[in-house]
Design brief:
single chain; eight-stranded parallel barrel; binds phosphoenolpyruvate
Length: 254
């Protein structure tokens, strides 16, 4: 049976009080498939508290971003070591909202990916096409360009893990999602591109490919059933207890 990851991106929507409240409630949700993983990604200011709450539970902690330098005059930024110190295991990198509002490029995402790996964090690297790119039919080229730039010349030590979140930009926070079969097709393509850069063994054993974009308790079942889809990155539906609980329950019916 595959291990299925449900990664909750709480974005800039939950403050400390709400993050703690939701984390406490998520801890109580019965996990029937112990091997499936649930990762909570609160804002920086809630990382430590949420981290200590979930410490002795099967839940894991992720951050929503980080800077690529180790230390220095980078006002407002958070280093990989700071995340490690707060108990973080995963870090979302290159989310389309950051690419859009903060102009993050594939080059920057590549630097951040290297810094995360160097510091023992598991990067969750987001890639995906815009609505126009999908309409124009050239999204395969877009995806392979992103993969090539982010992972260019990357040397992987044995055993390191990297997540790639395939998130069609037009599907994020819009209620529109790609059907599971089309998402699985994109995942296959992504794994093939990764195989070309590294090897098929590395692509299979070191990379976990997940889908993101308006996943909710109704659409989740389709994604769990596709062998190629190893998990989901969830924004909106993971920010309220009722919808998150329903989604977790459904994702256990693998
Ligand atoms: C996301 O934030 O990565 C995401 C997929 O959001 P949503 O589920 O709200 O589309």
């Amino acid at each position: 049976m595959k291990i299925f990851f449900t990664i909750a991106n709480w974005k800039m929507n939950l403050g400390l009080k709400d993050s703690v409240k939701l984390a406490r409630a998520v801890i109580k949700i019965k996990n029937n498939h112990k091997k499936n993983k649930i990762v909570l990604c609160p804002s920086f200011t809630s990382l430590e508290r949420v981290g200590s709450l979930i410490k002795r539970t099967p839940l894991e902690l992720g951050a929503q971003d980080m800077f690529w330098e180790e230390r220095g005059a980078f006002t407002g930024e958070i280093s990989p070591a700071m995340l490690k110190e707060a108990g973080v295991k995963y870090v979302i990198l290159g989310h389309s909202e950051r690419r859009n509002y903060l102009k993050e490029t594939d080059k920057i995402v590549g630097l951040k990916t290297r810094a995360a790996l160097k510091n023992g964090l598991i990067p969750i690297v987001c890639i995906g096409e815009t609505a126009e790119e999908r309409r124009a039919g050239n999204y395969w080229r877009v995806l392979s360009g992103q993969i090539a730039e982010i992972f260019r010349d990357l040397k992987l030590s044995p055993g390191v893990r990297i997540f790639v979140a395939y998130e069609p930009i037009w599907a994020i926070g819009t209620g529109k999602f790609l059907d599971a079969a089309a998402a699985a097709e994109a995942h296959l393509f992504i794994r093939k591109k990764i195989s070309e850069i590294f090897s098929s063994t590395v692509a299979r054993s070191n990379f976990t490919i997940i889908y993101g974009g308006s996943v909710d308790s109704k659409s989740i079942l389709g994604f769990t059933k596709e062998q190629e889809i190893q998990g989901v990155l969830v924004g909106g539906a993971a920010q309220k207890l009722a919808s998150f609980k329903e989604l977790i329950k459904k994702s256990q019916c693998l």
